[in-house]
Amino acid sequence: MCHSCDSDPETRTEIRIAGIRGIQGVVRKTVNDELRATIWEPQHMDKIVPSLLFNMQKIEEVDSRIGPPPSPSAADKEENPAMLAENCFRELLGRATFGNMNNAVRPVFAHLDHHRLWDPNEFAVHCFKVIMYSIQAQYSHHVIQEILGHLDARKKDSPRVRAGIIQVLLEAVAIAAKGSIGPTVLEVFNTLLKHLRLSVEFEARDLQGESISSANLNTSSKDSDEKIVQNAVIQTIGFFGSNLPDYQRSEIMMFIMGKVPVFGTSTHTLDISQLGDLGTRRIQIMLLRSLLMVTSGYKAKTIVTALPGSFLDPLLSPSLMEDYELRQLVLEVMHNLMDRHDNRAKLRGIRIIPDVADLKIKREKICRQDTSFMKKNGQQLYRHIYLGCKEEDNVQKNYELLYTSLALITIELANEEVVIDLIRLAIALQDSAIINEDNLSMFHRCGIMALVAAYLNFVSQMIAVPAFCQHVSKVIEIRTMEAPYFLPEHIFRDKCMLPKSLEKHDKNLYFLTNKIAESLGGSGYSVERLSVPYVPQVTDEDRLSRRKSIVDTVSIQVDILPNSSPSDDVVSNTEEITFEALKKAIDTSGMEEQEKEKRRLVIERFQKAPFEEIAAQCESKANFLHDRLAQILELTIRNEAHDRGREKLQVPPKERTSAYSYIDFGVETGLCIMWHSKGAIDRNCASEIFFSIAVSFIFST
Q1: Region 416-430 average pLDDT
Q2: How many CA atoms lie less than 13 Å away from 22 in the CB half-sphere?
Q3: Same domain, yes or no: 291 and 304
Q4: Considering its fold, how many domains does the chain have in total?
Q5: Domain of life of the organism in this record (predicted)?
Q6: Residue 240 belongs to what domain range?
Q7: Half-sphere exposure (CA, 13 Å, Cβ side) for 595?
Q8: What is the CA radius of gyration of the chain?
Q9: What's residue 520's pLDDT?
Q10: Quick check: 326 and 554 in contact, CB under 8 A?
Q11: Quick check: is 425 in a domain?
Q12: With bands split at pLDDT 50, 70 and 90, how would you rate the model's confidence at 80?
């Protein structure tokens, strides 16, 4: 009767209303009747629920975005089959219990699949809004689990069908987040991230498989559909995460960060074997966008809670990748976690701020936990900002985000010591733009100069030292007249005239360390460390980020040296030995002065540099020497002469180890001497390596 298709509209409506009333009577009778146990069985629900949904489809378009669906009026209940069916469906779901909830929900999926109502999905969204508002709150997670299970079952369907299911999940989560979510938090995120990976994999596979022009049109359409799926996943993750309590949100942040793949590491838990480089980059961007959504609005009392070491280290790794979009997302995530007083909107856009007081920056006194955080992780943050400024593919947004990072650290985490370190960092960036050891383009060099100007203008007004503000203002005024391309308002315009070089500029265009030290010293700041140039610590992150580090360069040299042999077409690089060259080699007066100057600089650095920076440099040097020694030992094992010596040597088993040790010692020492003679290592480095070889030889024999 509910499915009546009589030709007469009035008769059809009356028959359908009679059928719906019959179902409604059965539902109401289950309260105090023996049918209560049988009506919830699957064979009954598979008939009742589709009958009600079939009539509900005739409802006019309902606004499913704001609040629960409106309750039908009394007149509509009696005369409109659609309204009567919806009211009966509400009653049915309201009586469902823990044991029979799934039996009432599963027929809804079958009906939507059979009638292809996932694309478009307005009716599907309306149905699940009715379900979520009708069931008891403690059973909400059952419905979410059923949607996740159906999403897994339809993972090979078209992108628009999957996107429709995910949007239904979003609406269900939006309602469930206000009440009981249950134990499905990680399950929701794990399933969504899995489908995000599948969508990126499908997209990458289609891009690799396109071959003819006619297929390109279809592929581009399918790619846009996959982006709909990906955006739906990210939106759902962000909405769900933003409604979680802080302790659960921290867990989700760690969970998502653990999925982000970083080249050269296997710490991530996401399978990217089928993605390729393009797909891997795409999944990195999608995951970081998801993380950005989850961290939006997150407020932690201390920065240690927001950025623990277990989260900070993997978060900063993508900030060194050779992809400007990835670096932008990392900086935006950090801003979400650092900005505890909603100051970021006031800092948007890199510019020279005439009066920072007009921004009404909100800040509090730096607590002890934040001070400890900067002592432990400050050098790591400075390093990533320093290297991020020197990327050759930076665009204007990168410089804006880097400027905002410096400003937020100043507002949220800076005491007097941190302020000095940030000024040292800014001066080091200015020097790097002038010297240009990284062969950056003129636009990027001027962009760095503009970034330094904008930040020093900001920090000088934040600490309110008049002499410092006066020096910064004077430099900016001179730049406005003589070198406007050193200011952000000019360099980031579409048509900006760039200089041919920076070497001929007057020193009045630059911020001078001695002037800054003099101005800050007069206000009680400890300025001894300003005279020590900032040098970023060396770590293994460059190698993990597909960057060529110092160790990588040395390993290339090591691989070439043993196999290099002179040939006719290779020009020898040896210096011609003349009387003047020998005379210079004998005259050591200049070398003694250089040695004295070097010792003085080392002593000064250890006296004035912060302990964290000294420790980082010593650690990096130790790691560097350890890597070189490991490479020497690896070469020794592969040495053909060494292998032949082993084969020819016939000694008893007890003496064999000792004999091999003599050969090892001889080969390793010879390699060390050869390296020193070739100039690959200096005398001190050779001494340390030889000492390590000698110790190993003594213990082995």
Answers
A1: 95
A2: 11
A3: no
A4: 3
A5: Eukaryota
A6: 226-298
A7: 7
A8: 35
A9: 93
A10: no
A11: yes
A12: confident
Within a domain: 679: no
Do residue 419 and residue 526 come from a single domain? yes
The pLDDT of residue 323 is above 50 = yes
Structural domain contains residue 199? no
Please write the tens of the pLDDT for every residue from 266-312.
Answer: 555 565 666 667 788 888 999 999 999 999 888 888 899 999 988 99
The pLDDT value given to residue 551: 34
Q: Name which residue leads in pLDDT, 219 or 263.
A: 263
**If pLDDT is split at 50, 70 and 90, which confidence band does 653 have?**
very low
| CB atoms inside a 10 Å sphere around CB 270 | 18
Q: Which of 548, 566, 601 is the last residue of a domain?
A: 548
**pTM, to two decimals:** 0.72
The full 3-state SS of 424-489, as one line of letters, equals HHHHHHHHHHHHCCCCCCHHHHHHHHHHHHHHHHHHHHHHCCHHHHHHHHHHHHHHHHHCHHHCHH
Q: Tell me how far apart the 2 most distant CA atoms of the chain are, in Å.
A: 119
Question: How many Cα atoms occupy the beta-carbon half-sphere of 339 within 13 Å?
Answer: 22
The end-to-end CA distance of the chain, in Å, is 96
Mean model confidence pLDDT for the chain: 78
d(CA 460, CA 63): 53
Does residue 231 sit in the same domain as residue 304? no
C-beta of residue 131 within 8 angstroms of C-beta of residue 105: yes
Look at the block and give the residue holding tokens 């920065």: 303
What percentage of the chain exceeds 90 in pLDDT?
37
Identify whether residues 360 and 504 lie together within a single domain: yes
Residue type, 575: E
- Give the list of residues 6+ apart from residue 118 with CB closer than 8 angstroms, or none: 112, 124, 160, 161, 164, 165, 168
Q: Which of 244, 272, 298 is the last residue of a domain?
A: 298
Q: How far apart are CA 155 and CA 161, in angstroms?
A: 9
Distance separating alpha carbons of residues 577 and 587, to the nearest angstrom: 15
* Predicted pLDDT of residue 60: 41
d(CA 152, CA 191): 8
In 3D, which of 548, 528, 530 has the Cα closest to residue 538?
A: 548
